[in-house]
Amino acid sequence: MQTSIKWIIRLSTLSLCFILFGIMYSGVSYAADPSNQASVSGKVIDRQGLPVKDATVKYWLNYRGDTSEKSVKTDGNGRYRIIESVEDNTDITFVIEAEGYVTYRHYGSYGLSGGEQIQLDFHIYEPITIVGTVKDQAGRPVPDARIKVTSVFDRIVKTDQQGRYAVTGIDYAYNPNIAIWVDADDYMLYEQDRLSVREGGTLRVDVVLAEAAHVRGKVVDESGNPVSGAKVNAGGSATTDAQGNYLIKRVPTGARTITGEATGYLKTSLSVTLVKGDHNTFNIVLKKDADITPPVTKYRLVPITDTVNGKIYIKGFTFRLQATDEVKGSGVKTTQYRINGGEWKNYEGPVKFYAPDVKVVEYYSTDVAGNQEKYNKMDFVNGTFEGNGTFEGESYDD
């Protein structure tokens, strides 16, 4: 009797294992509550309409923020079937994966309710492949060049010792205008876009890289002190740091002019020949901009008139000033004036004054370098003037 009971237990356990095994490998997810079951079924096919077997259909069920991930496999005819117990308005989203095909992310979701049946086919396609070589201008292979292609930015492919490369898994649907970037130390960056190739196709792109030079050095004044914030240009540009150092990466090799400039200094140029790599060090000496010439201030008087007994009288003037500095000067900083020997005031616009209140007007300007102009003086009592004269456009029409 005990032997029979043991066999019954063993047979029951074995039967349960077969049932569980069948559920796990049937390619179908079964719901625990048949009354709330919803189903999604269909086919996974390629662009030619042929079935794709053993494709993985991943799906996510989301109900009120609670998400679960599951998957099923397609059969030999590319068919799949999902059965789930769901609450009303459960969202389902899909991602399709198959060996030799681009991963397909189905944008958008579907709302499922109990008893609902959805027929949904997925079209997947083969990836694009780009192959080729990377060489320098002398025809020598460039090993370890780094290659990126549109849609696979997260993957960098390097050339082998013969300069050969192959990039696959390129997603045509991501962007039909495929672009490629080739980057290698001591060479100029190579970029080509709008490569024309269809899904599943292979394109050959052979790349020739131009040699690049890295330019570095120091910018100092005539006493050897570093000049920070100086602008250096050598086909690319850089700004010096607090120690006067600069570094410009990847500019074309060959004859080139390097320029350095900074506020308060004269612009300096060097004619150099750049070679490949980080073997180009050029120090730049900037000379102080010796601005010793003061600005020039000119005036303009526009009469203010009145009519008395049919006669026109001048009762005052609108007084205007215009200050200029030399072309390479430091620039005008301030213009000041005073009336009748009074307090100096900054000139900010036209000033009106009336006779006989005003007897003497004086004015001058100062540039950024501190050069101060000699006083200009207008003596209305004696009818004398000392200064730089009037600026263009003087007239008696305001």
From TrEMBL:
SUPFAM superfamilies: Carboxypeptidase regulatory domain-like. The keyword Signal applies. Gene3D superfamilies: Carboxypeptidase-like, regulatory domain. Keywords: Signal. Residues 1-31 form the signal peptide. NCBIfam families: barrel_OmpL47. This is Protocatechuate 3,4-dioxygenase beta subunit. It comes from Paenibacillus xylanexedens.
